[in-house]
User: Fold these one by one.
Assistant:
Number 1:
Amino acid sequence: MKKGNVLYIVVPCYNEEEVLLETTKRLKEKLDDLIDNKVISKNSKVMYVNDGSKDKTWELIEEISQNDKLFTGISLSRNRGHQNALLAGLMTAKNYADVVISMDADLQDDINAIDMMLNKYYDGCDTVYGVRSSRKKDTWFKKTTALSFYKFMKMMGVDIIYNHADYRLTSKRVLESFSDYKEINLFLRGIFPLVGCKSDVVYYERHERFAGVSKYPLKKMLNFAWDGITSFSVKPIRLVLGLGILLFVTSIIMIIYCVIVKLLGQTVTGWTFLACSIWMLSGVQMLSLGIIGEYVGKVYSEVKGRPRYIISRNLLEEK
């Protein structure tokens, strides 16, 4: 494939004023180098997506855009979460770019991996996934939970790239196909493999966060993992069905046992056994209802068909 295509780098931002200027500096150096070497077009840009930030993130984006034509931005009407903000950026960028790279604003993703991604793109890949080469810098808890998450997702039947977050390259063709996926409950790293097309991976070392705090504390990470499982797998419901069948068979056996004991004239008080059985079955029933209810709730969200995001400002249209 001939080089010189228009590249847009989409960067979701939520309260990133502490790191945004440094991110801008590093991305500018990278884009200038790629443009000078004719790897990408001079019309390429970095698109910041303001996800309803409460600090001065949007004001900084406007200022950066005014001072440098390599940068632009869009602002959502309110905070919609990382996945929706990323989706808004991707769907907007596909109207202007030939190829789009998504990455976080905290500079943990290695910017130099962009060169390798573009090389694979020009070799014919429509999707290139940025994959962490190791987790040496993670705490034991973070490393264990992350690895468990990917293994559990695989076990649930979800097609997911191991150790890949949202640092990826996608061609315009992939994004055009991706726009046909209309679900409200977003788990982007699970949807892109469904699109298909030729893909490859690029390994990189993830850095420490340059400044600020993580926007994904444990509670959000758990919610994100649960969304990924329930959006792409029905195995939890099938596990509930299997458990129900097992308990039903067990109850039949217990009924037969109780009848035999009664006919033999053996009377046992059995209070402890009875109480434990009631509590166990009640707990299983509540757990089953909770899992099924989660799926019903997601169906409820989907059928309403509310917009996943609303763009209040698009600096590309204001110039």
Note: The mean pLDDT is 79.
Number 2:
Amino acid sequence: MKLKNIDIKKIFGLKSFSVLIIPNNTNLNAKTHRFSYRKTMTFVFTYSLIMALLGFIIFSMSPLKGLFSKSSNFSNNELNSINELNERMIKLSEELNEIRNSDEKLKKAIKLGDSSIYNKENAVGNRKINAGGTILSVFREFLIKFQIAQKESISFIRPVTGFISRNFDPERGHMGIDFVVKTGTPVYVSANGFIIFANYTVKDGNMIIVSHPGNYISVYKHCSLLLKKERDCVLQGELIALSGNTGEITTGPHLHFEIWKEGKPINPITILLKN
């Protein structure tokens, strides 16, 4: 492509130029300053270099460096601490979700805590007798079926061996009785039933709730270890947990035991068999 009426050689062969300064005051004469091209470029380059160096020094010594720096100012120990905190936060979040799920299960268990869920299907559904069964398993099945047939004559036994440190006091919010026992003491189910809740709760720690015939439920709180799970059928006197001191509202190793009848707490002492 050719450019017409333009002398390229004259443009790039420029060696000097002049600057005409005309003052606003008409009484003063206009002045002309002549600059060579080489001196002008040298001045511009030197000025740009000085400003760049000055800007770099100011930027590196000012707090702005930390805002734009890509490198981390944390030491290895600090980075490790940050990673550990992140892992703990993730674990705490998971534990919080588990506690929420346990609370939801507990609410459902309390709503369903009547004899309607303790039926023949639940009682023997998980205990099918096969040809290779033992005499003991057959006898246990017979006891379960016999208990179902005798719903009106249900009886409760003490879940642990120990003395009672606190009695039934619903006016002060104590819906059961406390047995003073060492941590790890065997806890036995008070009557035949169907486990509707077996999990950890914040206030009561490890807890088991058992549904019994006749609209009864029994509750075992503050256990150190649960040996049975939800939907398990249990026979009276069967080992279900170990006592402990778990939960926020416990004041020492003991077993808190409750019995409810048709959604209302009753004094366990009035219904427990003397043994």
Note: The first strand starts at residue 16 and ends at 21.
Number 3:
Amino acid sequence: MKLSIKDLNLTYGNHTALQNVSFDLSSNKVYGLLGRNGAGKTSLLSIIASFREQTSGSITIDGEAPFENAKITQHITFMYNKDYKEESQKVKSLLYGAQRYRPNFDRDYAEYLVKRFKLDLKKPIKQFSKGMQSALNVCIGLASRSPITIFDEVYLGMDAPSRETFYKELLDDQERHPRIMILSTHLVSEMDYLFDEVIILNQGQILLQDDYDSLISKGAKIIGIKEDVDQFIHTKQLIHEEQLGNTKAATIYGELRDEERRNASEIGLEIAPLSLQELFVHLTKEDTDDETQQ
């Protein structure tokens, strides 16, 4: 399926949640959607899943608007941090309901996942712990095998071993049944290896969309004597800096040519790579976050 969003806006009264958002997803990849609290991630995903309609702009999936379009929405699964405190059904009934509305749902795989996460088939879902409820969401989301599958911080409450099981099953099933998979998360350092492509949303706008490897290659920390560092980075995009005495560490965003790397080495500068989490934090920081010592 091809997802295309153009000049999309969403407002709530006087608040703008999304502004001029445009991007395309056409490859069967795992996309990491990153953004600080309030950046608009859940609002964007809700529109993609047709849970709500945008204020203006357009969204099409295979050329059709998805809102109130059953032909399209049956191929989208949106799993989020749902509260099951009023849900008296048991797992078996919930899986049956999911199967009815999702044409690609694999019941055998769902039951396999339920066993993997050790979910009690006889207990009402409302009696599950938060982690078990999240694991159930994972089971439904993966087993749905929808061409567009969305997980919005679905791991909440899951312990580390359960999250590792989720990540392994996600990668294995994505290899067997490729689709557009969107993961919204704050656990960037834990989940970054899952991403083929990264989208960063900042204050309701798309900050960047890039392949994971390409994005990581654009971040670097330049460390050395202050004067040498300043001279080296003066034409670069500075996103963070720290200084202790006459030693400075400057974080930059942008490609470094091989010649520039050789020149840095010749004048005694160290170039250290950045993690996705470091890049994300520095690229989305606000002025009040900047505690740089001048």
Note: The radius of gyration is 22 Å.
Number 4:
Amino acid sequence: MKKPVHTLATAMFAAILSLSAATAQGNAVQGEVRKIDEAAGKITLKHGPIRNLGMDVGMTMVFRVTDPAMLKQVKVGDKVEFEAENGASGYTVTKLQKSN
């Protein structure tokens, strides 16, 4: 009797992890660095649609960054994957990493 409960619990845990990963990846956007302004804490990205911000088409735009150290990890021309939100100070990149 314990075996079916264990199997069910394992399946539920796997489903939750899968859903969490899908949700996290759902906000990730592919882009390319066009300009970096370290003094202002801003980055210009050419990007695809950003669904969580209601942007159904790609464009090039300027974002603030939550952590200025992010700007030191990339250079103009780098392909990146990022997440953004509409914060109190405007559109802000909350996560940024180089992509392959």
Note: The chain has one domain: 29-98.
